[in-house]
Amino acid sequence: MRVLSPSIRLAALAMLCGAGLAQAAAFKAVLIAPDDDPRLDRNRLERAYLGHTGGPAADAVRVALKEAGMELDAAGASVSFEVVNVAATPEAARAAAEKAEKGGATFVLTDLPPAQTLAVADAVKLPVINVGEASDALREKDCRARLFHTLPSDRMRADALAQTLVAQKWSAVLLLTGPSAIDAQRSAVAQAAIKRYGLKLVGSKPFKLSGDPRERDLANPALLTQGSYDAVWVVDSDGEFARGLPYRTVLPRPVVGDAGLTAVAWHPQYERYGAPQVSRRFTRDAKRPMGGHEWSAWMAGKAVAAAVVEAPKGPAAAVHQAFAALELDGSKGVTMGFRPWDGQMRQTMLMTDGQGVVATAPPDGILHPKNKLDTLGGDAPEKLCKARG
Amino acid sequence: MDLTHLKLRRTVGACLLATLAGLSAGAQAQGVAYVSSEKDNTLTIVDLKTQAVVGTVATCKRPRHIRLLPDGKQLMTACGDSGVADVIDLATRQSVKKVPMGEDPEAFDLSPDGKTLYVSSEEDGALTIIDIASGKRSQVEVGKEPEGVKVSPDGKQVFVTSEVASLVHVIDTATQKVIKNIKVGKRPRRFGLTPDGAQLWVTNELGASVSIIDTRKLEVVATIKFEVKGARASDITPVGIEMSADGKRAYVALGRANHVAFVDVAERKVTDLVLAGKRAWGLGLNKAQDRLYVVNGLSDDLTIVDVPAAKAIKTVPVGRVPYGVLVVE
Questions:
Q1: Is some CB atom of chain B closer than 8 A to the CB atom of A67?
Q2: ipTM summary value
């Protein structure tokens, strides 16, 4: 058997077996992403805050599908890919999702805010893969039976950080929280992780980006970081305040959270398990470094291809079934897959200071009765997602 | 045994003298293990008798796979960051030649006549075929992150693993075309071939298994799953594999499970598990087949295993991020 390009293969199959079979071997993934995405504004991208996206998710999905070409070929299948950009309303997201399903999509990928993600999940009977939203609500109270997530949740990042602090024996934590509603949610997640891992919250203060001398208690790092603590945990979804915090604390203590030491899904400097090859291939095609969001979108593309390889002749239901049970290699040295209880991809977290990968989480010594990776994020016995029983 | 003893002792003596004399003598090349170090750009030399490091050899950048050339007087190591293979003369322990291999070479094999090199090129997702005399290169596209390369004993086929595609590609050396893709376990890494050439064993790093390919039928005929007491399946990550000279036993390094499995080839069953260092991967056997050398990628050392006793007897610190080992006697 010779290796043929997907189009030649399909043509050959069509001639041999009729159009029906050829169609059965062709699958489609549609990514729904925001039109005019504020995360992709030039000045946001230039700041390159840790844990923020570095560009369109579509680039990473394309790279993954391209890389899977030979494996798909060998299995006698192909996956086409389409991107739809939608206005920032649930209605627009829903309409795009319905259109994708009618157009024969096998999977829908989303890189949307929570309300739009849910609108998509509720509009279709297909697996929906969230590649860019970390909100825990989507994995817990607002979860859906067919909604999957490749991006680590806020709680997974907080758990990874708390575990790292435990491993370092930096147990007294001063928490600084930003002014946005998302900051408040993420601060609650951080506090729960601090409690879960037996760390001690020695102070919790709000901060505000401000040059106003009357607000200096809220804005001045030296005033905010008085007291006694082992580490300062900053929750700053915007990123600007956090970036200016390390080395400006009163005590010579590390900053963790949204600056200093951060938990991410991926970092281009990760050196183990074939990671440099993955980063290099992505950079060659997408002309930017591979960060956590890029890796998560790449992983979604890889998962789609892997599911198709498991059931290359279809039907779609068989591919979907294979998808939910995947055991995936994401070049982090462990087998990853989707947790049946919340649809989240279990994975190792990389701890970075922005320059390199300092450690991975879970660290040695963190134990779990079944899979160490399930210490990151909501675990089965917590039963946080009712839609998945 | 006594004779070997004497010979080794003489060799050690020669080694010491040679070291004093500025590494010029020829007799020193006997009875050592060379361990490639990805981060130090060196091969660490471990004396088999004293089980101690006796020196290093400077190489090209990021040496990985290492093997003896057919004449037995030179070794070759592929350097990922230099895009060349270094040919090291065993007598002088100096680089005598650099063979361009293309970007990011990882592992390689030679045609039975020693004239053609087959190299897995990680960067290109290709098998690079090099005519050593002319330096002429051609490429066959394979799945991403190719690693293990093995030429069939008759030289007519070459097998390549793709870590990403979970495939073993079978390439016809005459036409330089992929003639078959064989689906194996997750993240296939390296090969062991039985001496009769009938069975090709492939380690699956994320499958915690070895796939056994019938080289005549070109299909997987059996899969051996590994289990280690106290280790989870996800921590059993087989990479390195070595067949005994008589083909009766395969040694499989189980990666993060930190053990080496002894596998009975006929029974396809694990007979022993030996504790080594962290992320045990590269393997090498001595001629007498009674010592197994295990490279530990995460603890930067080499574990020496007494094969009949199925027990580690010593662990020797080597270079940073050691990759492969070559035993030369």
A1: yes
A2: 0.71
